[in-house]
Structure to design on (173 residues):
């Protein structure tokens, strides 16, 4: 299995990509690394892989989409005083709760709808459209059962008991 790993940012100059190839049942080899990965480069790289793991939200909270749709249609705002269903997806809350039960502490997930992560999610939505049009021929499910998987590196590192504070820092070894 060949896997494309993408650390997606809103802009290409901050986007990284790696091609992972299996060495054996337990080890993987980084075959290619690209920084400043453009959408065209990511679409081209996706043509030769079996799966894509992307560090980006693959969608928005359902309550947020419903609220924006209602706002557009001049319908009453469906949001509640607790805006967490508008700012965080069920996935975000489930991962946070799972790690909390295991007594693993990480920073809360960024809000996909109410901060700069929204720009990354918009770029990811466009890439999903291009992968659909150019490669897959149909939409990929966003639940991890298809060729596209959302990854959360900070949660994975924390679950593996690897210090993840500032893991993207340029000073980190």
């Amino acid at each position: 299995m060949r896997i494309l790993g993408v650390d997606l940012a809103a802009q290409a100059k901050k986007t990284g990509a790696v091609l992972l190839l299996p060495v054996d049942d337990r080890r993987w080899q980084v075959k290619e690394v690209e920084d400043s990965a453009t959408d065209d480069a990511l679409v081209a790289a996706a043509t030769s892989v079996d799966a894509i793991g992307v560090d980006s939200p693959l969608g928005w909270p359902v309550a947020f989409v419903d609220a924006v749709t209602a706002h557009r249609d001049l319908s009453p705002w469906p949001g509640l005083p607790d805006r967490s269903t508008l700012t965080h997806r069920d996935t975000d809350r489930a991962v946070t709760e799972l790690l909390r039960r295991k007594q693993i502490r990480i920073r809360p997930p960024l809000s996909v709808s109410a901060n700069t992560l929204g720009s990354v999610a918009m770029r990811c939505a466009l890439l999903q459209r291009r992968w659909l049009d150019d490669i897959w021929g149909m939409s990929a499910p966003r639940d991890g059962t298809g060729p596209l998987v959302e990854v959360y590196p900070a949660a994975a590192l924390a679950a593996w008991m690897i210090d993840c504070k500032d893991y993207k820092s340029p000073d980190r070894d």
